[in-house]
Design brief:
single chain; mainly beta; seven-stranded mixed β-sheet; four-stranded antiparallel β-sheet; 11 strands; 0% helix
Length: 124
């Protein structure tokens, strides 16, 4: 059974930090691109960040660039999303997905495996 498990969410004050983890089970994440997505209440899901499978090139949405950092640890079969300088508008359910990333398409195009999300709430 292939599973992706996102964890590390919670409540944080504006300006704070959280580190999300995406742990793979039944799939080797370093064989795929891995992307983080988020969906806020009443809004469509949007791509946040991706990391390539072969070159480790990273991609970020404009809204998080400079604040979030994606990284991977192949030994742990885990991809991380370090989120700094969090803003209330970052509040959403964050999920990870693995598959094939095409930067000129919607970031969910080519994602084959999806995991259950973790809640992030940024508020005072």
């Amino acid at each position: 059974e292939v599973q992706l498990q996102a964890s590390g969410g919670g409540w944080v004050q504006p300006g704070g930090s959280l580190r999300l983890s995406c742990a793979g089970s039944g799939v080797t994440l370093d064989n795929y691109a891995v992307c983080w997505f988020r969906q806020a209440d009443g809004k469509e899901r949007e791509g946040v960040s991706c990391i390539g499978s072969r070159d480790s090139i990273t991609y970020y949405s404009d809204s998080v660039k400079g604040r979030f950092t994606i990284s991977s640890d192949n030994a742990k079969n885990t991809v991380y999303l370090q989120m700094n300088s969090l803003k209330p508008e970052d509040t959403a359910v964050y999920s990870c997905a693995a598959g094939y990333f095409y930067m000129d398409f919607s970031w969910d195009y080519g994602m084959n495996y999806w995991g259950k999300g973790t809640h992030v709430t940024v508020s005072s």
